[in-house]
Write a structure and sequence with these properties.
Blueprint (H helix, E strand, L loop, with lengths): L1 E8 L5 H16 L4 E8 L6 E8 L2 H9 L1 H9 L9 E6 L5
Antiparallel strand pairs: 1-3, 1-4, 2-3
């Protein structure tokens, strides 16, 4: 299982545009084969900071996602919303019983 945390520091003037742009990406990504979850979380106590938490069945699913039309279209415009570089962390995990 691959877990990805992508943290976005959003320009306050562009927050509504960011949310409008990323909502279709979330919906399409959640429908992808190999996606376990794909959820956007707003940070508590940090204005305009969001973290996308993605969980995938494996690296093949991540690779297909990274080539998808919805992801590549959003990625091409994401920098216009940011006030800091995207902070991306990937983890390999397993379900604990």
């Amino acid at each position: 299982m691959i877990i990805i945390h992508a943290t976005f520091h959003i320009n306050p003037a562009k927050e509504a545009d960011f949310l409008n742009g990323i909502t279709p990406v979330i919906t399409a990504s959640q429908a992808e084969e190999g996606n376990i979850s794909y959820d956007l979380h707003k940070a508590v106590g940090q204005e305009n900071v969001y973290t996308m938490v993605e969980v995938w069945t494996g690296q093949d699913a991540v690779a297909l996602h990274n080539k998808s039309a919805h992801f590549t279209a959003f990625a091409a415009t994401a920098a216009e919303y940011l006030t800091a570089p995207l902070n991306l962390k990937a983890f390999e995990g397993q379900v604990l019983s």
